[in-house]
Amino acid sequence: MNDEKIFITGMGIISALGNSMDETFKSLTANKVNDSKIDLFECDIDKPVFKADFLNKTSNLTMRTKELADIAFKQALVQAQIIDSDKPGFCRLDLNNLRVGICCGTTVASQLNDIEFYRQFRAGAVKSYDPVKHYLSGDISQALLLEHNFSGPGVNVVNACSSGTDAIGVAMSWIKTGICDIVIAGGADELNRVPVAGFNSLGILSDSVCKPFDKNRDGLNLGEGAAFIVLEKESTAIARKASILSECCSYATAVDGYHLTAPRPDGQGLKTAISKALLNNDLCAKDIDFINAHGTATKNNDHVEGLVFKNMFSQQTKIFSIKGYTGHTLGAAGAIDAVITILSLQKQWLPMNAGFSQEDPKIAFSPVTKNTSFKAEYALSTSLAFGGQNSAVIFRRV
Amino acid sequence: MNLLGKGFADKNTKIKGIRRADIFTKMAVSASNKACSEFEFNNEDTKISIIVATLFGPHVTTFKFLDNLLDYSDSGVSPTTFSHSVHNAAASYIAVSLGIRGQSLTITSFNDPLKQALILADAWLEFDQAKKIVVCYVEEESDPMVSAHEHCTFPSYAKNKIYTGAASILLEKGSTIKIPGKILNPFIYIEEL
């Protein structure tokens, strides 16, 4: 195992906030909430969603996740000076000597869920197997490895809503154990009829724009997007004179072992993940200046996160959730959270927690209620997921 | 890595206590329980972990969910079917069944997912992120995917026939298992360990 630091040298993002880092920051400073109606596919559920508006509607939505991934992935590589924006096919890395891996979190891209194809299949009248080919392109990590001639490994993390954070954790493991010098990790997910119907059936979609941590929160909004970060070991970053954006200090995860869809009510799994992430880097709770919470605006999630934060952190630790601006982007959420966390550390600035207006006495704290400039060195980002997943990642300003 | 136990399950597996789970999950839980039959994990120990690896995940359940959508409506689908169509449902059930509280990861890749899982397990054990890891490979055949294999050109790494079943191994730090170059059939590979 090597003890070198792991640095972030590139980031890319696309979501309802915009299709670049600049657009994202601009939208956040203006507190833009770009919710919309479901119009990418036929659906009899009328709930607000957060769409990445600048993409053309494609005939097969599985491809949309890959398109989202491509946009964020390219931005991250350009910022890390791995490729040039005008020559995306030319890699500046010495690929004979550097091992480059890709780890992508997703949910929708991992399923062959083309409804028209399946309707035809049931009727014994398949017109085209193109949807299957599109599904195969949904192995995002393998596709990106091949496109960029990277050595790998490449895997997709399918840990539901914590996939993006867990992909970063996998990347750190690969670097720390010498499997890779550089890993591009993140997540991508599209708006799709299957999760819309599925989350609706669970009764956790809100009829209005979501209200993370608010007393009157009544559910989440689904969103879509992608984000990637370039992680590399210190010596590699220094040798190739890469600009260092942040340090990725620590990651930990713990499973509740409690219930398929509900978090453990006492938050023990989340507490374990945060405690381990702090301990891994010899940090204590008071070192954390702000928390980018999972904060989906469901009754259960925000309640459990609130209990744990209140129990572990002081009043000085600022807390916010990005979901009021992006919706819940599922497999991309943890990666989008990571990028926003690093951006906030760089800018020393936090956006107001969109949707919040009234403190919940059961949580007994308020997230950031106005755009705030501050001094921060360490930030924590948390993700909770189906299956009782709890993940935590800590970044440091450099 | 050292091997501490292994277990297998097929689609006819019967397992108590998870009546609502789909076949994919039942196979994964059954194989993992067998692999760990000689061990009892302490709920306080957060260094016992799970990695589930699969090519296609619980796609039979995904198709069942699509049946719901086509036969009823977007608002008439089953929440149980939806929650079991999520890829990490099997890992969640394994955690509950074995009392595991450490890391839990489900990965997919059309390129040798079991090998990718073993690489990661080795890294976690070396790095002391885990002291024991259940690695489960699980797959379930479905009619649409069999048909797709007949009619589509799959990438070379995803061409292998889909077998239905689960195979789990319990690993600890050590040097008796070397990660092979390519695992053509995960079930045979685990059988021969």
Which keywords apply here?
heterodimer, A: alpha/beta, Peroxisomal Thiolase, Chain A, domain 1, 2 domains, ten-stranded mixed β-sheet, three-stranded mixed β-sheet, 17 strands, 32% helix, B: 193 residues, alpha/beta
Radius of gyration of chain B: 17 Å
Mean pLDDT of chain B, as a whole number?
A: 93
Structure class of chain B:
alpha/beta
> Main sheet of chain A?
10 strands, mixed
Largest interface: A-B, 65 and 67 residues
Provide the CATH superfamily of the largest domain in chain A.
Thiolase/Chalcone synthase
Helix content of chain A: 25-40%
Residues in β-strands, percent of chain A: 15-25%
What about the largest sheet of chain B?
Answer: 5 strands, mixed
Please, could you describe this protein's structure?
The complex is a heterodimer of chains A (398) and B (193). Chain A folds into 2 domains: 6-239, 3-Layer(aba) Sandwich (Peroxisomal Thiolase, Chain A, domain 1); 250-397, Thiolase/Chalcone synthase (Peroxisomal Thiolase, Chain A, domain 1). Helices cover 32% and strands 22% of the residues of chain A. Chain A is built from 12 helices and 17 strands. Chain A has helices spanning 21-29, 61-79, 115-122, 130-136, 140-148, 163-176, 193-201, 234-239, 268-280, 299-312, 323-326, 333-347, and strands spanning 6-14, 35-36, 49-50, 83-84, 87-91, 100-105, 154-157, 182-189, 222-223, 225-233, 246-255, 288-292, 318-320, 349-350, 372-373, 378-385, 389-397. In chain A, the strands form 4 sheets. A 10-stranded mixed beta sheet of chain A has the order 7-6-8-10-1-11-17-16-12-13, sandwiched between helices. In chain A, strands 2-3-9 form a 3-stranded mixed beta sheet, with no helix packed on it. In chain A, strand 12 (288-292), helix 10 (299-312) and strand 13 (318-320) form a beta-alpha-beta unit. Chain A is globular, with a radius of gyration of 20 Å. Chain B has 193 residues and is α/β, with parallel strands linked by helices. Chain B has a single domain, classed as 3-Layer(aba) Sandwich (Peroxisomal Thiolase, Chain A, domain 1). Chain B has 7 helices and 5 strands; from the N terminus they run E-H-E-H-H-H-E-H-E-H-E-H. Chain B has helices at residues 23-35, 59-71, 79-85, 89-98, 113-126, 143-151, 186-192, and strands spanning 2-9, 48-54, 104-108, 132-139, 165-172. Chain B has a 5-stranded mixed beta sheet with strand order 1-5-4-2-3, with helices on both faces. In chain B, helix 1 (23-35) packs parallel to helix 4 (89-98) and helix 2 runs antiparallel to helix 3 (79-85). The radius of gyration of chain B is 17 Å and the shape is globular. Chain B starts with a strand and ends with a helix. The mean pLDDT of chain B is 93. The chains are: A alpha/beta (398), B alpha/beta (193). Chains A and B meet through helix 3, helix 4, strand 7, helix 6 and helix 7 of A and helix 2, helix 3, helix 4, strand 3 and helix 5 of B.
